[in-house]
Amino acid sequence: MAQTVALSATAREKTGKGAARQARFQKQVPAVIYGHGRATQPLMVDALALEKALTGVEPESTLIDLTVDGKTARALIREIQRHPIRPDIIHVDFYEIKADEKVRLKVPVHLVGTPDGVRNAGGVLDQVTREVEIEVLPEDIPDRVELDVTALKIGDSLHTRDLTIPQAVILTGADLTIATVVPPRAEEVAAPAAEAATEVAEPELIRKVREGEEGEEVEGAPAPEGKAAPKAEEKPKGKKEE
Known about the structure:
The protein has 3 helices and 13 strands. The protein has helices at residues 17-25, 47-54, 116-119; strands at 4-11, 28-35, 38-46, 63-68, 71-82, 89-96, 103-112, 124-127, 131-136, 145-148, 157-159, 169-170, 177-182. The protein has 2 domains: 4-97, CATH 2.40.240.10; 104-182, CATH 2.170.120.20. A 6-stranded mixed barrel has the order 1-3-2-6-5-4. The protein has a 4-stranded mixed β-sheet with strand order 10-7-9-12, with no helix packed on it. The chain has a 3-stranded antiparallel β-sheet with strand order 8-13-11, with no helix packed on it. The model is unreliable at 211-221, 223-230, 232-236 and 238-242 (pLDDT under 50). The chain starts with a strand and ends in a 60-residue tail after the last strand.
């Protein structure tokens, strides 16, 4: 069953980014609580106490007995915002619940055992889905759902329909794959080097022009780099072709 932790909070009168920064400077975490038609109430929670309360538990499926100004309300954590670089919690949303009303929440799926396809055929276990959504009374909330994968062979899969959660209705689609065993990943083999050409074309020989022979070229050879090819001999002007 879900774990229950106790936490204290104080009402927060000032709101906005400036007030939130000031609260964090004082080692407090800005928070809100809402639900059951109550107006959203801004709160502050001691940062160290919050981190301690959430250590070793699944936050989304943990019941919180939240005491604010001497009054205690049972709640779930709907959202935790953390600093983009540091692991610090910077904001928390609490959702008040009632003992006789069902709630919707997500619970983590934990795989149990070593698949046959991994143990005997070198396959790889791939967990595709790590949490499912359920509807349940607060007292029946599981802290997690376990799924036995021992019998899976290579190519086998387990789906949401294979889960069993007492006293709860599973809202996630029945055909959603939870885990599968895939064949062992083939080692990458380097592509063979291209074979050298059996016949190497011989380079064209260009006779070096000696001094005094400027303008003469080897027949069929291209002009040396930087020099234009010789023009065809022009006929003397004024002479008719005989």
